[in-house]
Amino acid sequence: MPLTGRDLISLDTWSLEEITLVLDLAEEMARSLDTGASERPPFSPLDRILATCFFEPSTRTRLSFAAAMHRLGGSVICLQDVRMSSVAKGESLADTMRMMSAYSDLIVIRHSQEGAAQEAADAASVPVINAGDGTRNHPTQTLTDLFTLRRRKDTLSGLRVGLCGDLKYGRTVHSLAPVLARLGNEIVCIAPPALTMPAEYLDEVERLSGKRPTETGDLAGALADLDVLYMTRIQQERFPSPEEYEKYKGVYVLDSALMRRAPEDMIVMHPLPRVDEITEEVDHDPRAAYFEQAAGGVPVRMALIALILGLVEAPEGSRRWGFG
Ligand code: NCD
Questions:
Q1: 216: exposed, middle or buried (C-beta count within 10 Å: 0-12, 13-18, 19+)?
Q2: How far apart are the C-alpha atoms of 146 and 152, rounded to whole Å?
Q3: What is the CA radius of gyration of the chain?
Q4: Percent of the chain whose pLDDT exceeds 90
Q5: How far apart are CA 167 and CA 174, in angstroms?
Q6: CA atoms of 9 and 175, how far apart (whole Å)
Q7: Any residues with Cβ below 6 Å from ligand 1, and which?
Q8: Which of 288, 164, 177 is nearest to 234 (CA)?
Q9: Cβ contacts of residue 158 below 8 Å, gap of 6+?
Q10: Going by CA atoms, what residue is nearest to atom 7 of ligand 1?
């Protein structure tokens, strides 16, 4: 299989065919999960170990990777609280990765520094998946975003997608925007002047799609023309000071009043966690897709793990695990 043994550091080096392969297999995985535990034949144990190494907080990404590996029948080890590991004694990332390679078949890493996932992949002898490196990349979130987007809109191209919130520090939008551009979508960037999308990503989107994103600070004004609104959290931990963060806290709040100005068929996405940028009343709006998006993390990561570990023989073909 084309993805067997591959690292996933950034989707920039993955073709659209490879991305589609993951999404298609994720659909199959989702179907097998939807069957329900009582009707599903018991899965056979899989003699593979996934190592999760998180040097930054995570709920969804770490747990959906773990759930995905368990669903495939494999095992998970985790380096979670780095204060309790040798990292606290000053061990280098490269040495930690060499050791984790001896203990596992696949490493998932999240780190606060841009480039850390590549550094980990260079040192590891097993494939490495980037689960977020600083403000730079979050490719598995992008795959999860595309999965929900395709399910809800029946297409992955020709859409007008508004990215809203902290576009300066948010890695989910930095990962997503170039892939949306490659797929032929139009991007509208909605952010306060100090948190706009860095020029390198705007340039990249323009290079890939021939169209530079429109930039605005006005969410209410932009809403009426969107097919998708992708909200993000103001990235508190990346601000130089708490005072600086306080200035932008609550800068955009999507509520029912704003939703009344949005098209009937616009969907609302958010990588989560949300802080205050979407009110809970919006959760009941049929256009809210963010919890579904989080749930999609499991089948998408099952597909990704299965492809990288070479557990599937063909996209539609037989699988080595026992269910489905
Ligand atoms: C995101 C992240 O870690 O970048 N969370 C996630 O993985 N779903 C988004 C965020 O923290 O704002």
A1: middle
A2: 10
A3: 20
A4: 86
A5: 8
A6: 11
A7: 60-61, 132, 138, 141, 171-172, 232-233, 271-272
A8: 164
A9: 184, 185
A10: 61
Position 315 scores a pLDDT of 52
Encode pLDDT of 215-270 as tens digits: 999 999 999 999 999 999 999 999 999 999 999 989 999 999 999 999 999 999 99
What tokens does 92 get?
Answer: 């280098």
Alpha carbon nearest to ligand 1 atom 12, residue: 233
Q: Which two tokens stand for residue 45?
A: 């144990």
The string of pLDDT tens digits covering residues 58-77 is: 999 999 999 999 999 999 99
In whole angstroms, give the CA distance from residue 294 to residue 159.
21
The reply to whether the predicted model has a pTM over 0.85 is yes
Strand spans (E) along the chain: 49-54, 75-79, 106-111, 128-133, 160-164, 186-190, 214-216, 228-231, 267-269
Cα of 219 from ligand 1 centre, angstroms: 21
Which residue type, as a one-letter code, is found at position 82? V
What pLDDT does residue 320 have? 40
User: For the segment 269-309, what is each residue's pLDDT rounded down to a tens digit?
Assistant: 999 999 999 999 999 999 999 999 999 999 999 999 999 99
> Residues near 136 by Cβ (< 8 Å), separated by ≥ 6?
10, 114, 115, 171, 174
Largest CA distance in the chain: 56
Which residue's CA is minimally distant from atom 11 of ligand 1? 273
Closest to 20 in 3D by CA, of 155, 118, 133: 155
Q: Which of 153, 131, 300 is nearest to 230 (CA)?
A: 153
Instruction: Give CA–CA dist 287/268, Å, rounded.
Output: 6
Dist. CA 185–CA 149, nearest whole Å: 12
Q: Is the pLDDT of residue 39 over 80?
A: no
Tell me what the mean pLDDT of segment 24-37 comes to.
Answer: 90
| Average pLDDT for 81-100 | 82
Rounded distance between C-alpha atoms, residue 93 and residue 293, angstroms: 31
d(CA 99, CA 92) in angstroms, rounded, equals 11
